[in-house]
Every structure is written in structure tokens, then in C-alpha cells.
Amino acid sequence: MLVMFDIDDTLVDHTAAVRAGVGALHEAARPTASLEALYASWHAAMIEHFPKYLRGELTYEEQRRARLRQTVAPSSTDSEADRLFDCYFEAYQSAWALFPDALACLTRLEHVPLGIISNGNGAEQRRKLERTGIAERFQIVHISGDRGYAKPAPELFLGACSAAGVAPHLATYVGDLYETDAVGARRAGLRGIWLNRGDSLAPEREPPMIRGLGEVPELVRTPA
Which fold has domain 14-94? Predict the structure, then answer.
């Protein structure tokens, strides 16, 4: 058996950290837009440009600058964009924190091999695990930036299972994005659990669906 998790908005409250970062950026850049408007445009820019990084169309630094230019400083040089992004990132990084249900879930699963599969920059994602104090709990950590392919590509899921020496059908993956995480895992032969922390009933989506990580240990004991 193997149980693996996504990081952002599954174990770590990424959304709250982004809000903290956008608040710092708003103070540093002094845009005419309100804080809420900047947050909305920042979110839109992330949705547009971060997948380009995952697909290899932009470098990690290029997608950061593209997001910055789209939201607050369209004519900035690379160094100016990097300086402003650093204002965002310092606050974002300082706000990294586990969801209240994360640690208890991992503790209840201490008898099971645990792993991470996450999209993003390898060094950054590993720092999240270290700074939140959970890095040592995982035997397998597969980050897209280190592997050359990103979720929902089956290679990322299958590579993690192979590294753990566990057949895909004996592995469970938990993530907050239905298509990227739950469906991606299922297509690779794993048991994919969708973590839906919101209010959406989503009746058209295939179970299992959970509302919090506290449900994971019981599901792991339940046959797929």
C-alpha cells in the first residue's frame, strides 16, 4: 500500500499564502486597482502562465515575470519584474502553513508508506514540506519540475509508484483538483480521491470525494 498527496491546497493552504503575497505586492507596487481586483487579476495570470511553465513553454522565471507584467508592471525590465515578484514571494513564503486537518491525517497514516506528487518547481515545493515540518514523513517526493512532465500525465504517478516499489492499483492519491489529481491518478491506475474543501456538490463527478483530510484514513482501509 502507498498513500500519496498533492501539496498546494491539499496539505498546505496555498490560497491563503497567495493572498498574503498579493497583499505585499499591492503595497509595494501601489497599483490603481484595489487589493481584491489585484488578487483576481493575479489569479487569472497564474492560471494563464503557470501551465505554460508546466508544459515547458516558459522557464520558471519567465512565467513569474509574465504574471507580474500582466498584473502590475507591464513595461518592467526583467530585473524590475524580479524585484517586485520577490516582494510577493517573500510574503507568500512566510505564510506557508498546513491546513488544520493535515497533520492529524498524516499521523494516523504513519503505519503506511507516504508520498508526494506535486506540480511546480522542485526546490520550492520541497521547501514547503520542510518549513511546515512534514518533509520527513514522506518516502517518495515526485515534483514535476524535476521530472520533465506534469500532472495529469500518467508518467508522474507511475514514476512515483515505481520508485516506491508499489503497483499502481495498490496506491492512493489525494488532491484538490478533480481533473488534474483525481482523474489523472485514476487514468494511471491509482485510486484517485478528490479533496473538495468547497461547497460544490459536484454530482456529475465520480467518487470518492472527501471534504477534509480527516476522511482519508478510513477510505484507505475501504476497498476501492
Answer: DNA polymerase; domain 1 (1.10.150)
